[in-house]
Design a protein that fits this description.
Blueprint (H helix, E strand, L loop, with lengths): L6 H9 L3 H23 L2 H17 L10 H20 L7 H7 L13 H19 L3 H12 L4 H8 L3 H22 L4
Length: 192
């Protein structure tokens, strides 16, 4: 049974010809890879395609995986490259998955009697839209770090490995992303 094996063992078994082992790698990491792609690209179909391409490329190039980092970091790096390539090729403005996440998971928004009114619902939707636009206006390199740290809850070290940049750069990009986002939100809303 492959479910009990470590990622490293699964890689070795895959290289030895066990396709079920790679299937387990996909099962373990597809949600995180999809979340990264969706957060970066903002379109479910594009994210699904990028996720599929990530795993196809990983399988095709698994012999080149040196094991210097975790398989999850390697997969995330491939996904980041897929997203950047798609964004360059399509020249689409990426969208944040924040709006969709809230729309698809209404329980994520606490509803209290004072914000259950239609007026409050409209105000909440306007705020969500503004936050989405504010996140979309961030440069890709800042938005990626923000998504990985705040939504995927990765460590600074993991992000640094995935993006192949120093930890200090990850921290400065996150600080800058949060500062820019806060400034944009302060322009629209009174932030206390």
């Amino acid at each position: 049974m492959t479910a009990n094996l470590t990622d490293e063992q699964l890689v070795r078994r895959t290289l030895d010809g066990d396709t079920e082992a790679f299937g387990e790698i996909v099962r373990r990491w597809e949600r995180k890879i999809f979340a990264l792609c969706y957060g970066t690209l903002g379109c479910k179909e594009e994210a699904l395609d990028a996720t599929q391409e990530t795993f196809m490329l990983a399988y095709k190039n698994l012999k080149g995986f040196r094991g210097d980092s975790k398989i999850s970091s390697w997969l995330h790096r491939i996904a980041v490259n897929q997203c950047l390539t798609r964004m360059r090729n399509d020249k689409k403005a990426s969208e944040s998955y924040l709006e969709d996440e809230i729309e698809n998971n209404p329980s994520a928004i606490p509803i209290s009697p004072e914000n259950a009114s239609p007026l409050k619902a409209v105000e909440r939707k306007e705020r969500i839209e503004f936050v989405r636009k504010a996140m979309n206006s961030l440069p890709v390199e800042l938005k990626q770090v923000l998504i990985m740290k705040e939504f995927e809850e990765m460590t600074f070290q993991e992000i640094a490995e995935i993006l192949d940049i120093p930890v200090s750069t990850v921290k400065s990009r996150l600080y800058l992303a949060l500062s820019l986002l806060r400034r944009k939100l302060e322009q629209k809303f009174i932030v206390v």
